[in-house]
Design brief:
Layout (H helix, E strand, L loop, with lengths): L7 E5 L3 H12 L2 E7 L6 E2 L1 H7 L6 E9 L5 E8 L17 E4 L3 H10 L3 E2 L4 E2 L10 E6 L5 E6 L18
Parallel strand pairs: 1-5, 6-10
Antiparallel strand pairs: 2-4, 3-4, 4-5, 7-9, 8-9, 9-10
Length: 170
């Protein structure tokens, strides 16, 4: 078996419709399908709790698959239940941010801001093995507090001198 790449990233959000609107406006995502429509749910019980490893009394209220213009997918989950922690920040253990490549970083940051994201600072140069004259990144917070990174690296990067493998082929 050979892994071909990331198929999708799962994101738990407080409101699936608001998150859909954000990812559509900010990243150009499109709705592919609803795995669980709110009006057909909730999906709950011992099997769900065991399969997902969530506390007793947790229920999936809605599940939706989005597609980014050049993949991967973003699977949105809305849960109800006895426990829900705030979104992870970069110092927390576990999956901590979604990074998307942008052809025009300034336009991508502006689009995300217009959709409700809050920048954590202006775009900055990529450091070290990723540096290049036009290679930059910016971190933003989504409307519900998750971390979104937007980056661009149109110039050759120093790491490319030591391997033929590339992170992304813009």
């Amino acid at each position: 078996m050979v892994i071909r790449g990331i198929d999708h990233v799962g994101v738990t959000v407080p409101d699936i419709d608001a998150a859909t609107a954000f990812f559509t406006a900010a990243l150009g995502a499109e709705v592919l399908y609803d795995t669980l429509r709110r009006e057909d749910g909730p999906n709950a019980g011992e099997e769900v709790e065991r399969r997902l490893g969530v506390p007793e009394g947790t229920a999936q209220a809605a599940v939706r698959m989005l597609a980014l213009p050049n993949g991967p997918g973003i699977e949105l989950f809305e849960f109800t239940g006895p426990r829900q922690r705030p979104p992870a920040v970069p110092c927390d253990l576990g999956w901590q941010h979604l990074a998307c490549y942008a052809g025009d970083l300034d336009a991508a940051v502006a689009r995300a801001e217009a959709a409700g994201a809050v920048p954590l600072g202006p775009p900055r140069p990529l450091p070290g093995p990723e540096e290049g004259w036009r290679n930059r990144f910016a971190y933003l917070r989504t409307p519900w507090g998750s971390t979104l990174e937007l980056l661009t690296y149109p110039d050759a990067q120093p790491y490319e001198r030591t391997t033929r493998r590339r992170r992304w082929r813009p």
